[in-house]
């Protein structure tokens, strides 16, 4: 039996809603999750993160 020394590639989809502070927080999260491949496809992503706040109208919607 052979074992892989590499982790399988996981995909990540991130949606950032709200203020510019949320964009900075999203960038920090992506940096910490750099082992994940960023995906534009929600349906096929292994992880989906929605970064939002309740202070901006577009985030509330």
Main-sheet strand order equals 2-1-3
**Which H/E pattern describes the elements?**
EHEEH
Helix count from the secondary structure assignment: 2
How would you sum up the global shape? elongated
Textual characterization of the structure:
The protein is α/β, with parallel strands linked by helices. It has a domain at 11-41 and 52-60. It is built from two helices and three strands. The chain has helices at 20-32, 57-60; strands at 11-16, 37-38, 47-51. It has a three-stranded parallel sheet with strand order 2-1-3, covered by helices on one side. Helix 1 (20-32) links the parallel strand 1 (11-16) and strand 2 (37-38). The longest helix has 13 residues, at 20-32.
What distinguishing features does this structure have?
single chain; 61 residues; alpha/beta; 2 helices; 3 strands; 28% helix; 21% strand
In short:
This protein is 28% helix and 21% strand. The chain is α/β, with parallel strands linked by helices and 61 residues long.
What topology emerges from the helices and strands here?
Blueprint: E1 11-16, H1 20-32, E2 37-38, E3 47-51, H2 57-60
Parallel strand pairs: 1-2, 1-3
């Amino acid at each position: 039996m052979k074992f892989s020394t590499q982790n399988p590639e996981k995909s990540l989809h991130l949606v950032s809603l709200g203020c510019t502070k949320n964009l900075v927080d999203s960038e920090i999260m992506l940096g910490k999750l750099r082992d994940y491949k960023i995906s534009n496809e929600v349906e096929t992503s292994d992880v989906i993160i929605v970064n939002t706040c309740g202070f901006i109208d577009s985030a509330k919607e």
